[in-house]
Amino acid sequence: MKKTTPSKLQFETLAVHSGTKPDPVTGATSPAIHQSSSYVFRDTKHAANVFALKEPGFIYSRVTNPTVAQLEEKIAALEGGTGATCTSSGLSTNLLAFSALMSAGDEFVATQKLYGGSAGQFRDTFSRSFGWTCHFTDPDKPEDFKRKITEKTKLIFIESLSNPQGVIPDLEFYAKIAQDAGIPLIVDNTVATPYLCKPFDYGADIVVHSTTKYFSGHGQAMGGAVVDGGTFDWMKHAKKFLQLTTEVSGYRGVIFARDFKECPYAMYNHAVGLRDLGMNQQPMNAYLTMLGMETLPLRMRAHSENAIKVAEYLSKHEAVSWVSFAGLPSSPYYKNAQKYMRNGWASSLFTFGLKGGYNAGTALVENVQLFRHLANIGDTHSLIIHPASTTHAQLTDEQKIAAGCGPDVIRVSIGIEAPEDLMADLDQALKTAKAKAA
């Protein structure tokens, strides 16, 4: 893991150049795929120093890998963080991010409008397996977050642009709540990506991603990332975060918050988190993600512009009862989009409701031709799904509605195709669904 220094380069340039340089030996311009489990040491002193964290180096690809390290440097540069740790998936990212901060019996406060996989993980597995209690809270009521913070609360978790409802919270307000409580604010920036939103600029302490989505962009590589903002004063709150402020087993004499001041959290996530939990990203996935990230600015621009056009079209369609998209002036989150998102864009993801309810929703996804019916977002292709019967099916009816995934809800991720073709496809599918329902 390499510390990232601030850059004056524009985002588009960083997307192409950060983290990757031509190979000094071969001259290869594309990043090498280091499909190696382990690495030879120069001598015994080198080996001892690397194991003791006294010298940077590669030991075993579960902890560090040269290809993955390049991706980590690129992600940290684009987010404006001091270091990053890549994982095998977005959900494993949550586990890594939390494990450095929490112990059994601890609590955290999270938005109730978030990705269904995260909601299930927070509600069930984290509680059952690790003894971490999540207090879900309405993101539109930040004062409720403040009221739910106790002495056992170790973090606040929100999404910069929620999946699937498109909630854009007041990031600065949440950052202030976390700061006053002496705990870090973790922001999942998957849907917005750093091209649209930079959570660190608004007071976030940690940023997480499912790199499977927009970073990769082509539906071919799984992964996640945790980014250290490098700003949280762990030693000031030493009694709350003992993993970072006391000696850790296996690293005698090392205190991460004291010895790695620029990126203590990222160092811990590598040296302890990946070492003990083992959710490392594979080098081939890292390579594919880096290729995808080179075109991230171009794709996010197309995603966002197309989504506005499709959302406007659906808002006027006779079969549609409502559209929830922060890019539309009618959205309650439009003001926050203007404040926190580049150009007021709201990415490619949004939901809409069908007048025909549950049956109309399932009929729609079965009759689209260009849209692909699958459980992913952020692809170059346009994607569609009925959350109530798939991604959020494990929730109760009340929980589905609270998460913005009621029976009439359709989620779309608008791709980079011609928007006119996408609107025509939705129109024919909506007409077919209506005819079948009748």
Q: Order of helices and strands, N to C?
A: HHHEHEHEHEHEHEEHHHHHEHEHEEHEH
Low-pLDDT sequence parts: none
Distance between the termini: 59 Å
* CATH topology group of the largest domain: Aspartate Aminotransferase, domain 2
> How many strand units?
12
How many domains? 2
Strand content: 5-15%
CATH class category name of the largest domain: Alpha Beta
Mean pLDDT score, rounded?
A: 94
Q: Would you identify the CATH architecture of the largest domain?
A: 3-Layer(aba) Sandwich
Shape: globular
CATH superfamily caption of the largest domain: Type I PLP-dependent aspartate aminotransferase-like (Major domain)
In the sheet with the most strands, the strands line up as: 1-7-6-5-4-2-3
Radius of gyration: 22 Å
Largest sheet: 7 strands, mixed
Total count of helical runs of at least 4 residues: 17
Q: Please estimate the helix content.
A: 25-40%
The SS-based structural class is alpha/beta
What does this structure look like?
- The chain is 39% helix and 13% strand.
- The chain folds into 2 domains: 282 residues, Aspartate Aminotransferase, domain 2; 142 residues, Aspartate Aminotransferase, domain 1 (Alpha-Beta Complex), CATH 3.90.1150.
- The mean pLDDT is 94.
- The chain has 17 helices and 12 strands.
- By secondary structure, the protein is of the alpha/beta class.
- The strands form 2 sheets. It has a 7-stranded mixed β-sheet with strand order 1-7-6-5-4-2-3, with helices on both faces.
- Helix 7 links the parallel strand 4 and strand 5.
